[in-house]
Amino acid sequence: MKHIPMKKALFLLCFILIGLNTISAQGNCQDTLYVNLTEPVGIDTVTVDIEVANFNQITSMQWTVDFDPSYLQFIEPENFGLGSLNASNFNITGPGELRFAWFSLTGLGVDLQDGSTIYSLKFASLQTGDTDICFTNDPLVIEISQVVDGNVFEMCMSEDCSSIPLNGALHQGNITAITQGSCANPITTANAQDWIVHIFNDDNEYMVSPNTQGFYSKLVVPGTYTTTVIPPNYLWSVCDNNVSGSSSEDGDIALVDFQAVPFQLCPELHVDVSTPFLRRCFDNFYSVDYCNQGSEIAEDAYIEIELDPAFTVSNVYHPNFDITGNILTLNVGDVAPLECGKIQFDLLLDCDTELGTTKCVEAHIFPDTICAIDPAWSGASIEVYGECESDSVRFFIENVGDMDMLMPVDFIVTEDDVMFEEGQIDLATSELTSVAYEANGSTYRINVNQVNLHPGLSSPTTAIEACGTNSNGTFSLGYVNMFPNDDQDNFVAIDCQQVIGSYDPNDKRGYPLGYRDEHYIKANTDIKYHIRFQNIGTDTAFRVVIVDTLSEHLDVSTIRPGASSHSYEFELRDREVRFIFDQINLVDSTTNEPGSHGFVKFSISQVPNNPDGTLILNAADIYFDFNDPVRTNTTDHLIGSDFIESVISGIKNLLQDEQILVRPHPVVDFSEIEILDTDLNNLEFTLMSITGQRIFEAPMNDNRLSIQKGDLKAGVYLYQVSHKGKQISVGKLIVQ
Predict the structure, then answer these.
(1) Which entry of 69, 393, 722, 732 is 20 to 30 Å from 461 by CA?
(2) In whole angstroms, how far apart are CA 551 and each of 508, 562, 616, 617, 634?
(3) What sign for the dihedral angle of Cα 327, 330, 333, 338?
(4) Backbone angles phi, psi at 551, to 5 degrees
(5) Is the model more confident about 550 or about 223?
(6) All structural domains of the chain with their residue ranges
(7) pTM of the model
(8) Whole-angstrom Cα distance, residue 254 to residue 222?
(9) Secondary structure E strands in 127-195
(10) What is the pLDDT of residue 12?
(11) Cα 646 vs. chain centroid, distance in angstroms?
(12) CATH number for the domain whose boundaries are 268-370
């Protein structure tokens, strides 16, 4: 960015001698220390360096910095030039008021070369023009101490200001959603917060979100731009979009207001739910956030929270609720267009819950209206659920729609991270079928393709964990979140978390976690990020800011802020996302450990059709007041296709499927297995569990074998046919 020269402001500081029995007047200053405010660099964000001269044997400094909050928004201090100086030396105590205090930890005086930067102040520019940054005596008195020949001198600094020119061209305006009326005759309106404003030309591109009042503002490099508003869905139509505006010089202001009217009258309710983490034998604090992003009132809305049986509801911070079995119902009443709300509750997790197991909470908000329905949809609709029975995992697949399926749909079943079952189902209306597998401690998941042209984004799937045990008496963990849950529709949110013991208090997770260590996900899979934070300091944190710079492989225009522990203000600056928790008053962990935690969630889509091999990385910085940022871990997802390993992949069958006859199949009481059309004799048959454990072996006399169900548990098994010790075929056998 071009460095624009400007006049430097010099602040005079005088030494005042304080003797053992003498108080000297200010006029007795013996030396001079100069503090310089340098010219700012940048347009959207400006940085001001604080330089010094005659910085000799200084032991402490303090002063107040005043600025105009209508021009500048303080972001953070940086570029610290003193060994013991860091962000904790700064405290913003009000709009436009920043206090600074520093002292030498050794008690010895510090020398710096003339022109050294002791720190820099980073601001977001809110508008163009000149504004002042001032060193003042109110409320923190200007005071600088110096050690000279064993005597202590106090130094005074004259009160003065420096003019800071904010350069660039300003694009700003209001976005108003007209809920009743027309573009020409608005009757009732709502603020369009969290919509996205896209400002672009051939050379530059900017993204910004409006504030809670629907006002947006962005400083840009001067030029001619097109400004476009991106509503949250197709239900809103912008009256005059794609507005071209010219801002050819620094200081120009392009005012572009937007109005949006309903394209179709329909409510569209969004819901999200989460907690910082799960601990057994503790109350776990949950927050459910909801919004109506539609264009019509959602009447008599309510949220059903389905709980894992290990949870007990201990507190609900909402006056109108009901608990029936494992369903917590929250009644929220009418929700106006673009109205949002937050409800919080505590869930006690059973003390006997195994560490590492995954427990889920599902929120479903009603009315769950889907406004766009393809008239060619058959009316069939697939739902799945699962149960852990005494000796098996059973999945139920049901057509809950009003019509029969027009054609079969595919399904797959995975055991932990291996696919071992593929099939098809074709169900009439209200018809229910099931598949069962051995309860061997593995995590089983079923994925069923939804019927063609089904409204919304439903992708029926469910997982069963910790059903039975393996040969070691244990069960597998950590597989539930490997694949996406069935919550792509806005009116459903599923939050699944592992029960933990020790934990990192400030971390980030991206769901789905992805397949195996590479964290494979498919292109066009949305990612939900969950950021946790905890105040492990020694005092209350009054302000927490989370800064997340998004990968170029993510589509910024699709970001959707989600549930959080505390109310926040959402800001989007190009690819930088900010969640600002002002006046959060987050207590420290030594005072109140459960109350020291917080979290925020958001979801985002990938750039369409990312190619295989694309690596999506993401990390966040967490600022507690003005302490140094805490960097979270980096999440990673690798784009791939056909990455799920099959238990029979890579095995070349020497026999064709039609040469292997199993009658009847599935096995109910017994089945006959026959190998047809082969010259091979003396074949051997081996039956194995899905994990490869041998159950029995037998010769196939005349290439035939009778199998009795006997003690075989219901489920899927593998079989192997061999000739003289060489495997010639492998397949699957289902026992009911």
Answers:
(1) 732
(2) 15, 19, 6, 6, 12
(3) negative
(4) -65, 150
(5) 550
(6) 9-166, 169-262, 268-370, 382-482, 657-735
(7) 0.77
(8) 10
(9) 129-136, 143-148, 151-157, 160-166, 169-181, 186-191
(10) 41
(11) 31
(12) 2.60.40.290
